[in-house]
Amino acid sequence: MEQLHILRDLAVIFAGSLLVILVFYRLKLPALPGFIVAGILLGPNALGFVNDPQDVEGLAEVGVILLLFTIGIEFSLSRLKEMGRQILVGGFSQMGFTILATLAAGLAFLGSWRVALFLGFLIALSSTAIVLKVMTDAGEIDAPHGRLATGVLIFQDLCVVPIMLVLPFLAGKAEGGVIGLLIALGKAALVVVGVIIAARTIVPRVLREILKTRSRELFLIAVILIGTLTALGTAAAGASLALGAFLAGLIISESDYGNQALAELMPFRDIFISLFFVAVGMLVQLDIIREHIVLTLVAVAVIMGGKTLAAAVGPALMGYSGRVALLAGVAVSQIGEFSFVLAKEGRVAGLLPDLLYQQFLGVAVITMLVTPFLLQGGPAMLDALEKLVPLDRLLPGFRPRDLAPVHEQVKDHVIIAGYGLNGRNVTAALRSIHVPYLIVELNAQTVRKARAEGEPAFYGDATREEILRALGADRARMLVIAISDPAATRRMVRVARDINPGLYIITRTRYVVEIPELTRLGANVVIPEEFETSIEIFARVLAHYNVPREEVERLVSEIRASHYQALRPGSRPRLTLTGTFRTIPEIDVERIVLGSTAPVVGRTIADTALRSKTGALILAVRRGESDVATPDADFRLAAGDVLVVVGQPPQLKSAYRLLTGSEPS
Fold it and tell me: Both 628 and 651 in a single domain?
């Protein structure tokens, strides 16, 4: 009967979650906060459809372990090296300032440094799941603020491990004091070293042998077994199962099979994580929030505002503008899912009284619920704020002094916003035809490197009017926007068009839906990545079927000239070729070796009547070390000749029988 009880609760949870998520989908909101709302509604503190959420918590804890496992798979040492500055500077400043501010406030209002420090740990963590999901859907994950936010989240994920190790000592439940803590950290370090050795030696060989069976089931079982054994090993060493799950994911990420393992585990992780958020919602007591509504809302505002400023300090130190720094700060201003796990452990350890625990849950849930709205409306809010307070004065980027402003009075030049792959390709093309150009980039390190290569690169935020004027936008011929930030792109187009109505503006976009808005704001040409990928694919397909290059180029030009009308959703593409290229049959090439007993040895090509009997054509003959291209009709064939024959598959089979006297294998 207990099994039936759990199944009934799961059925209620999935049915209620389905309805709530459908509503969230209609409102264009991310699903993860919807699971929290579903948990609040279904739990014992609201409608009461599920009276005992502890039955669900066991499955939810599995979800957290799977989350850490998949984060470990997505995380790699090469990625850590690539994003080193964003991770260390951005993450350390955000965690450090948040913990210190919470510790000071906690000492003033709570009096216990242990509780205050623990609250600092809880508040400092942000929601990796929500932030990455919302920013990926919005196409902002590769924008400057998206990369900065990702770096902070990676640093936080790494900090979960030492926080879990410190928790028993902070609660005063561990033996040995400082020495015991050092021993625990030493054990954890040994486990990490062992994991790295296993990642480089044992695991790749094991997975390689299993993949030889071509069985998805065996591969999935092996991946789960690696995670289980690693988690049990860390638990035996005195660390947590969650740490083991993260390290197990790291093992697989360093092999060649990380992507496949992630693909296999994603459905399981998503289901369990959904249960985790539902379970969190069930734990929230609405009565506590109602009784302390003012305190709760003030705490939400202070925490999110404080975390925004704390996270913005790191980007400012790295030279980013105030707008980008604050956008990154807004992205990580909520409280994260791992905070719930730590809060539960802290409650058991006696660090959080029941009332404080419930107040924390209420505040944390509200911060997660408002995050999607803040991320969507963040650029507009900062635009409004900038009219009142110049952000670069409120939070000035500490720009290196060697990155001086523009002094060259060039004209009829091209301004290139963004010096990534697309920006570099544009500069190479302009340089080849001797057209003057200026580069503007927000990454100070990229600017410094470009200048070392002799490029006219300048540091600045091209969404600002004064930066574009300093670059000579009023006398420029063209503006090329090659960045990955949709909101910044729209703002840049609008500001540039106001400065120079005659400026020719070319911009890229990742999504088709951005085209009408960018065109309305003043862009002359909008190049969508989706359509350009489609054009490249069909151009290569047509080339494979021997459609002449000029015909393919004509089609491509027509599509681009019509602003990709043929490829837009809702219209069926109609591409018309001027010749009969659509009916070109499949043509193959085969090499046929003439043996000493071949019936055509000693005869000329004309004597074989190959063309009239089979339809195939001898394109070339290789004799010894020499090649004869397009041999004449009177060319005499000899034993050992290698004939290069072209034709359709049936024609080649007939040619093989005629030339060799045997059936093709």
Answer: yes
